[in-house]
Each structure stands twice: as C-alpha cells, then as structure tokens.
Amino acid sequence: MGSWEDLATFLTALPGEDLALFSRYAAVKVPEEPHAVSATLRTYAAQNPAATASELLATTGARAGSARDLGFARAMGAAALELAETPEELRLAHVCLAQIHFQNRREEADLLAFEEHCRAAIGLGHGGTFCYERLAALYEYRGDLEEAAKVCRRAVEALEGSGDPRSAERFRRRLQRLSGERPG
Fold it and tell me: Rounded to two decimals, what is the model's pTM?
C-alpha cells in the first residue's frame, strides 16, 4: 500500500481543478477532503488488485493526453514515473510520456523528450509497437538509417519475444527496405 499512500499524498497536494481532472480522466471519484483520499484509493486498490498507483497515474496521463490536455498529462506521467516500483511500471510510465510528448513533437523540447522516453521504454523491454515505430520513423526522417535499423532489429527481438510475430514481420520488412534489400 506504500505507493497508494504516496499517490494519496500527491493527489491531496493538487489544486482542486487538477483533482477534478484526475477524477475525470482516471474514472475514480477522488474526494477533496484529504483524509478521505487514502480511503478512496484503498477501496480502489482492493477492487482492482492487479492495479498499481503508478499504472493508474500513467493511464490517467494517457487519457489526458488523448484529450489534448498535455500539461496535465505530462504531470501525471512524471508522477507515474516517480512512483514506479517495477520495470513494468517504469516501462508503462515511459511509454505514456513518449505518447504525450509525441503529440507536441513540433516543439524541439517535446521531440527530445519523446526520443528519451522511447529509448527508456525500449531499454526496459517495451513489448508494444508505438515506441519502435515512431522512433524508427524519426531516425529515418532525419536520415539516420543506421539508428532506424537498430530500432527495427530491437523491435523484431522484442515483438517476437512478446508473442507478436505479425508486428515483428512488419519490422523485418522495414529493415529490408532500410538496407535496400528486396523482399524475398
């Protein structure tokens, strides 16, 4: 329950409007009374035993990002990263932050943050396609085909390991294209 208590502390420090946003994006009605926040989170944790505080923050951040509420989304993603206790939680927080920064990628700082969070998620064994696809496309756009190929090779490895051979095959084809090979 430690991280849930840390989340309660984080939430009680939020301004009222941000607490309302959290409730909306998390789909968890969090009361404004500080003493009731812990009880609400304990109830939520009991009803969702597989959930963690960090995962709740990351998914809340992702929902806020989808709604283009990027400042709030970044704050939730950063808090998710801070509360992460396992490699899975760290990976999810980095993917969430990568997605949020990707939405505002025309800004150099967001593009750099996107790249940083993608690399961190990949380093932690990200098993989805988002970070690999977007990062390979970024490197390809920049003309850094060697880095794009490295990302694709890592994607093939990770996606085969996670049981997604279809996506792994897409990255194999991309690797062939990057190296100038003809599909065979």
Answer: 0.88
